[in-house]
Amino acid sequence: MIAVFAAMEIEVKACLTWTSNIRQTELQGFPVYETEGAVICQTGIGIRARDASEATLACYEPAVALSVGVAGGLSPKLRAGELVICERVDHESHRHSGFDAIVLSHAGLVEAAVAAALGMRLSVSTGSSITVDELATGADEKSAHHAWKGHDIVEMESFWVGEAAAKRGLPFLAVRAISDDAAEPLVMTGAMKPDGNFDQQALLDYVHEHPEVASHVARQYEAGRLALSNLTVFLAAFLAPLIQHFQSGVR
Length: 251
Known about the structure:
alpha/beta, Rossmann fold, 39% helix, globular, 7 helices
């Protein structure tokens, strides 16, 4: 069995297009989707992923753990929709602590992920991610994160999933699709809730109250849609063969 962790409901849906036999349940308040050979957990945003991943790995005892979803771009070379297969993940709290506790993706999983993406003719590169506790919304924040170790992307969950996997000696992989590039500021509409569910009415209300940002929000939405579309294509090509591989007993 493999375990897949995604923060948002829309990211979880991207994980499930390859299968129709799905059982939805709950584990310690986190939505969980069980299917043949895999369990997908909706962690919610940020540090919630620590508790979600620890609970899921303890309960299901999978052979591998994946962190997937969208992310903000930090490298100026990357554009919305591109996939980044993360070879390592840092947490921002280590920047000034002298404590360099990174989590590493399994080299074989990185290689397989790149091959799957290229096989679907997706734009993909290997790189690194920084996990943060507060959303990086502006170009200056993104630039500061990039300046630390040259990270390619920024997100809020992968370090916690990787750390939980490392404690159990499990192979780990983080894959992210870029939803906003390094120069693109984010409009905080309040539509995405901490549990990872999207409140469409909150988005409509925000745009109604702030019509000056409507075009920016529309552009932001289209970039996010492209990222999710490419992530969905990738996962449909990657997950089923990965499940078969680990069901064969090979690591």
